[in-house]
């Protein structure tokens, strides 16, 4: 189940999730940024 489309999809998902968490953290704690 490991084809050429799985890795980029997972990387894109993790990147989007990380950015979302970062934005939420920045909105909740603006004094740290």
Which residues form runs of ≥5 with pLDDT under 50?
none
* Total strand segments: 0
Percent of residues in beta strands: under 5%
> What is the tally of helical segments?
1
Report, as a whole number of angstroms, the end-to-end distance.
41 Å
Classify the secondary structure makeup into a structural class: mainly alpha
Report the helical percentage.
55-70%
Largest sheet: none
Based on Cα principal axes, name the global outline.
Answer: rod-shaped
Average pLDDT across residues?
88
Q: N-to-C SSE series?
A: H
Number of domains: 1
Any idea what the radius of gyration is?
14 Å
Features:
mainly alpha; 33 residues; 0% strand; 70% helix
Question: How would you sum up this structure in a few lines?
Answer:
By secondary structure, this protein is mainly α.
Description:
It is a single chain. The protein has one domain (1-33). The protein contains one helix and no strands. The chain has one helix spanning 6-28. The longest helix is centred in the middle third of the chain and has 23 residues, at 6-28. The protein starts with 5 loop residues before the first helix and ends in a 5-residue tail after the last helix.
List the helices and strands and how they pair.
Layout: H1 6-28
């Amino acid at each position: 189940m490991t084809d050429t489309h799985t890795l980029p999809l997972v990387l894109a998902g993790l990147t989007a999730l990380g950015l979302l968490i970062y934005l939420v953290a920045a909105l909740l704690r603006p004094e740290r940024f």
